[in-house]
Design a protein that fits this description.
This protein has 121 residues and is of the alpha+beta class. The chain is built from 4 helices and 4 strands. The protein has a 4-stranded antiparallel β-sheet with strand order 1-2-3-4, covered by helices on one side.
Amino acid sequence: MALTDMAIRNAKPGAKAFKMADGGGMFLLVTPAGGKLWRLKFRIDGHEKSLAIGPYPEIGLGEARRRREEAREQIALGKDPSREKQREKVRARIQAADTFKAICDEYCAKWSEPAVSTNYE
């Protein structure tokens, strides 16, 4: 049975974490602290893996389903969506570091360091 937004909002935390299935391997994990986290369980190369989609309500039901379908498309192509997500984070970090300010800061830091003396007296 597919989840509804009303069922998600009414989910109360218990003594243990529990899952609310949506279908297609996606579920909402409700933690004892009250957090609600979207997860996708999938198999690739014979191994079971899990992908963190994000927290509810920042990522609503419709957005979570869209991301599930994107991940399932990657799986169909033989790609691991969790690995692709990690690669995307690295790409974003590298692109952010290639700004003019970052290059100037690195240059200034390199030239402001004191020279190391090799003279042992």
